[in-house]
Amino acid sequence: MFWKSSLKRGLLAVTMLALCASAGAAATSYGKGGDFTLNAPDGPLSLSDLRGKVVLIFFGYTSCPDVCPISLARIDASFSAMDDQELERVQALFITLDPERDTADRLEKYTRYFHPKIIGLRDDVDAIDAVTNLYGVKYSKDPMPESALGYSISHPTDILLLDAEGQIVEAVPHDAKSKYLLARIRDLLNAPD
For residue 191, with 0-12 CB atoms within 10 Å meaning exposed, 13-18 middle and 19 or more buried, which class applies? Predict the structure, then answer.
């Protein structure tokens, strides 16, 4: 019996190390990031406007059937576990990759459904492409003639985690638990200035 529990603990430790290694490695596939300005419901918003806050960035679209709502729900679960002082120091940005369909009103309703600290950002395709290029985000518009939507968007599934200086710290995998995301956000909130 003892060897079974030791084996289970050993396998759990190896699995956790592998997950941590893959989570950290994912950030290297993204660009260096940097400041940008896109349109929020209340007007233009720049990343530099959020300096001093931990920022989460997710690229997606409101018609996404699975990855986007799951990722935003994980952000919501993390934010909902925070106290008011922590919430004042964080912000999530949902950048649409489908400005053709994602109007400002639609984005605002969609993001507010998940959490009021998630802001939907949009602009024309050229401005969105400038941001995706800055962050090394690859996406494509894939025709789906048999669908009522007509097309879907293939996009990365990671949540980008930025420190208070706006630097990419980690690309949190889509399948990471909310507790992991919360812990990483708190690590950044508690980091020395």
Answer: exposed
Q: Give the CA radius of gyration of the chain.
A: 18
- Residue 152 and residue 142 in contact, taking contact as beta carbons nearer than 8 Å: yes
3-state secondary structure string, 62-92? CCCCCHHHHHHHHHHHHHHCCCHHHHCCEEE
- Residue 58: CATH number of its domain: 3.40.30.10
Three-class SS of residue 188? helix
88-143 tens-digit pLDDT: 999 999 999 999 999 999 999 999 999 999 999 999 999 999 999 999 999 999 89
Q: Which token pair is 35?
A: 């400041």
How far apart CA 37 and CA 166 sit, in angstroms, is 13
What domain range includes position 145? 2-189
